[in-house]
Amino acid sequence: MIRFYFHPTPNPAKIALFLEETGLSYEVVPVDTSKGEQHAPAFRAINPNGKVPAIVDTDGPGGREARVFDSTAILLYLARKTGKLLGEPEDRPELLSWLLFIASGLGPFSGQSVHFQFAAPEGNDYAVNRYRREAERHYQVLNDHLEGRNFIAGDSYTIADISAWGWLDRASRVRKSVDDPLAPFPHLKRLFETVDARPAVARARAVAKDHSFKKVNDEETKRALFPSNYPPAA
């Protein structure tokens, strides 16, 4: 059984999609990051970095319980556990390269682009420009790679495509005020639409829909999501 610590944001969405694609048995454990539940000692014992997603595999290697945190690590762990969505062995170097490109580039720059356009105080024009342009540059790199290809690594759908989908799903926030944010990147748009049309996506989007996550962006939320902006308590 997989215990899946979840909040409806891009990185947990990737894991939800993998779980739905593969049919692994899992239990959702909602973590309301706007309330600061990711900072609770019980959750920090699972992910010391206080971020979602995280999983606990009650049937880990050697039959031992295993914790895994960070969406890329979880995708790799579950793909190896199931033997699914890893592509062909000869494609693994390419798969790892693009998976880490997304983990270290497209994902973080997309996240910072969203942050400075929607969450940061006004007057950060340099940061808005920096992160949005870098996110767009990563889009272009991946778009160019996808010309003449159906998927990111090899000829089949893999965890690299799942990882990209998680953040491309938020392109309208990454590229704020653009009607069709993926239009300048037609190969990337095609990949996103291909993945987004898969039946498992609808099931992944429904994960924890019955849980009432906090939606009010008040002072508690800001302190929970951006604790480094605040001095530690005396």
Automatic annotation (TrEMBL):
Residues of the GST C-terminal domain: 88-216
Superkingdom, natural source: Bacteria
Pfam families: GST_C, GST_N
InterPro entries named in the record: Glutathione-S-Trfase_C-like (IPR010987), Glutathione-S-Trfase_C_sf (IPR036282), Glutathione_S-Trfase (IPR040079), Glutathione_S-Trfase_N (IPR004045), GST_C (IPR004046), Thioredoxin-like_sf (IPR036249)
PROSITE patterns linked to this entry: GST_CTER (PS50405), GST_NTER (PS50404)
Segments forming domain GST N-terminal: 1-86
Family designation: Belongs to the GST superfamily.
Name of the protein in question: Glutathione S-transferase
The organism of origin for this protein: Aliidongia dinghuensis
